[in-house]
Amino acid sequence: MKKIKSLKLSLIILALFTSSMFANGLSLNSIGTRALGMGGAFVGLANDGTALYWNPAGLAGQTSRIYVFSTDVIPSGYYKMDAAGIDANIKTNNYISPNFIINYTMGKLAFALGVYVPAGLGAEYNGADLKNLTAPFGPYEWMSKLAVINISPGVAYKVTDNFSVGLALNVYYGMFDLKKPYDTPMDLNGDGVPDVLPQYSESSTGLGYGVTLGLKYDVNNKLSLGATFRSSTKVTMDGTAELPDVNMKDDFTRDVTWPMWIAGGVAYHPKNNMTVTFDAQYSNWKALDKLTAKYDNWGEGVFVLNWNDAIQYRVGFEHTVSKAFTYRLGYYYDPAPAPDETLNILFPSSTNNAFSAGFTYSLGKVQLEAAGEYLLGAEREVKAVPGNAMPGKHLLNVYSFSVGFGYNL
Fold it and tell me: How many other CB atoms are there within 10 angstroms of residue 156's CB atom?
C-alpha cells in the first residue's frame, strides 16, 4: 500500500504526457532568413521565395531565384515543483532545419517549388532531475523530437498590375519520437502491488495534404496588402510503441491535425529604401480538443488538449542602407494556446515576446543573409487542480539563428 500511495502524484502527472506536437514553442515561427529578421511580419510584403509559405500571391512578378537557408532552433527553460523537490532544466539541444526554394517567373505567371521545415523542435531532460515524479521507480529518459517537412509546389498569377493570386500545395511528412515513463505501473509478481513502471518510447511518421491560398494587392507604390489562408492538414501517423523493460511492443496509428491558419498583412514604404510591415496571424488551435492513438493490441489512448485559438501580432522593419547592405528588425507577440489543465513539460507552451534582427549583403546576383531571434517566454505557475494539471513552474525560452544564400537566375 505504501508503494501505491507513493505513486499517486506520479500517476496524476504522467497521465498528462501526450504526443501533442503543436505548442507554439514547437513551431518555426518565421520561415526564411529575411522573414525571421522582420519578426515574421511578411504576409503583406512576401517578396522573396518564402512567399510560398507566407503568401503565394507574392511570387508573381518576382525575380527568378534559387534560395537555400537553414535555421537552428535552440530551446532553454525549466520545470520546477518545490513540493516534490524538482528543479529540472531543458537540455540545450540544437534543432537544425535545412530548406530549399526555387521560384521562376514567366511574365504574369510564376512557379515555385519548396522543400522546407515549417515545424520542428522538442525537449529533453536529465532523467535524474525528474526522478521524484516517479518515485520509487526511475530514473527514466524524457525526450520529445518533432520534424515536419513540407514539399510544396506553388503557382501565382498577376491578374492586374496591382492584384495577384497564388496557390501552394502542402505535402507534409511528419516524424515524431517520444520517450517517457509509462502511464501505468505494472504488477508482474501477481501480489497486488505494482513492482515496475516501464520506460515508454514511440516513433512514428506520416503524410498529410493541404493547400495555401494567397492574395496580394498593391494599393500604390508605397502600400501593399496581403491575405493568406492555409487549410488544416491531417497527418496520419503510423508507428511503434515499446516497453523494453517488460519486452512489450505494439503498433499504432494517430491522426494529428495542423490547424487552419489565416493571416493578414500590410507593407508600407515610407521611403524607397525603407519598409514597415504589420501582420495579424490566427491559428485555429481550438480544433485540437483531443488526440487518439489506436494500438493494435493495447486499445486506445486518448489525450485531452482543449487548446485555445490564438492570434499572433507581428511588426517588421527593413532599411536598405546601400546597394550591398540591408538590415532588418522585428517583434511579435505569441500567446500560449495550451491551458494550465493540459500543460506538459515535453511540449511546453508559453506566452512569448519575440525580438529579431538580421541583414543581407548583396554581391551582384548573390545574396548572403543572416538573422537571429530570441523568444522570451513568460513563466507559468500551474496550481494543483483536479484533472490533468501538472503543477509547478514552467518556463521556455527559444533562440533561433538562420543563414541563407540566394542566387538570382
Answer: 29
Please say if the pLDDT value at position 12 is more than 60: no
Q: How would you class 187 by CB atoms within 10 Å of its CB: exposed for 0-12, middle for 13-18, buried for 19 or more?
A: exposed
Q: What is the mean pLDDT of residues 130-154?
A: 90
**Cα 274 from Cα 15, distance rounded (Å):** 52
**348 vs 24, 220, 284, CA distance in Å?**
8, 43, 18
| Candidate from 14-28, 197-211, 237-251, 273-287 with smallest mean pLDDT | 14-28
Q: Is residue 8 over pLDDT 50? A: no
- Kindly tell me if the per-residue pLDDT of 150 is higher than 70: yes
With a cut of 90, say whether residue 344 has pLDDT above it: no
Rounded distance between C-alpha atoms, residue 44 and residue 222, angstroms: 12
CA distance 108 to 110: 7
pLDDT value for 75 = 87
Per-residue model confidence (pLDDT) at position 383: 86
Task: Burial-class residue 133 by CB neighbours within 10 Å (0-12, 13-18, 19+).
Answer: buried
Which of 1-10, 76-85, 243-252, 303-312 shows the lowest per-residue confidence on average (mean pLDDT)? 1-10
CATH of domain 2-408: 2.40.160.60
CA distance 21 to 57: 29
pTM of the model as a whole: 0.89
Angle (CA) 363-70-319 rounded to 5° is 45
| Model pLDDT, residue 235 | 86
Say which amino acid occupies 134.
T
